[in-house]
Design brief:
This protein has 259 residues and is mainly alpha-helical. It is built from nine helices and two strands. α1 runs parallel beside α3, α3 crosses α4 and α4 crosses α9.
Length: 259
């Protein structure tokens, strides 16, 4: 008894899942929380497969390319670029939060206190890592992960597969958006930097009035204690700023989908 398997319909069925899987997989590799190196690759792969099974039936039917052809390679590159761009816009907010914490830590004299960042595999100031963890908790509390999955599903409607992909205006907006990294980081670090600047100026005046005073022994613990006090008193504003930054980032992704 000979069993014949129709290869054509099988390949066509797989192609409806392969292209969404490429975009979703690239998105999860960059998305905050999931994209960190502390998340095993198998977990990310399993999550990408589950999301693909859920989202693929809602993807509008388009003329897909052969995976092994040159056109298929171009389409795969476009899908990877779209997924990376969407995850990058939100990841940039977390980098700004970590940057603000690092600037505060350097101003307080905690630049020598480093901690291993499991998300990137590098050593960062411990205060920057603390701010990063706080941002992740706020992201989860605001259901940011669910909003990102919703935007990912909407991207298949705005940017259908096998189409032009990322256009030049979208790339220009993405490059302009990267400037917000320094704006967000400055807003987070500005209160502590201002307070510490006043302290340093005060010790500068004291050094002129009392040259024999050991400012290093006195100023270092005072700056550190004042920095912790400012962080504690400014925690409510920090949460509001992080929430606002995440909302702006998600809104930026929505505006890109509408273009």
């Amino acid at each position: 008894m000979n069993i014949e398997i129709a290869i054509g319909p099988l390949i066509e069925t797989l192609s409806t899942y392969i292209w969404p899987f490429v975009r979703i997989g690239a998105f999860l590799m960059v998305m905050p929380l999931v994209g960190g190196s502390f998340v095993p690759l198998r977990i990310r792969l399993l999550l990408a497969i589950v999301l693909t099974i859920v989202i693929a039936p809602t993807v509008p039917a388009t003329a897909t390319q052969d995976v092994l052809s040159a056109a298929g390679l171009v389409t795969m590159t476009q899908e990877i670029g779209i997924g990376v761009v969407m995850g990058f816009l939100v990841q940039l907010v977390f980098d700004a939060i970590a940057l603000g914490g690092q600037v505060i830590g350097m101003s307080m004299g905690l630049g020598f206190a480093v901690f291993l960042d499991r998300a990137r595999g590098v050593s960062v100031p411990v205060l920057g890592q603390l701010f990063m963890m706080l941002g992740m908790l706020i992201f989860l509390a605001l259901d940011g992960h669910l909003a990102m999955i919703q935007l990912l599903a909407m991207s298949f409607q705005a940017w259908p597969m096998s189409q032009q992909g990322l256009t030049l205006p979208i790339v220009e907006e993405l490059l302009a958006w990267t400037s917000n990294l320094f704006v967000f980081g400055l807003k987070i670090a500005l209160p502590a930097i201002t307070a510490l600047l006043v302290v340093n100026l005060s010790f500068g005046v004291m050094s002129r009035a009392a040259p024999t005073l050991n400012l290093f022994a006195v100023g270092f613990p005072v700056a550190m204690l004042l920095g912790f006090a400012v962080i504690f008193l400014n925690m409510g504003v920090l949460v509001e700023n992080v929430s606002s930054f995440l909302a702006i980032s998600i809104s930026a992704i929505s505006s890109l989908l509408e273009n």
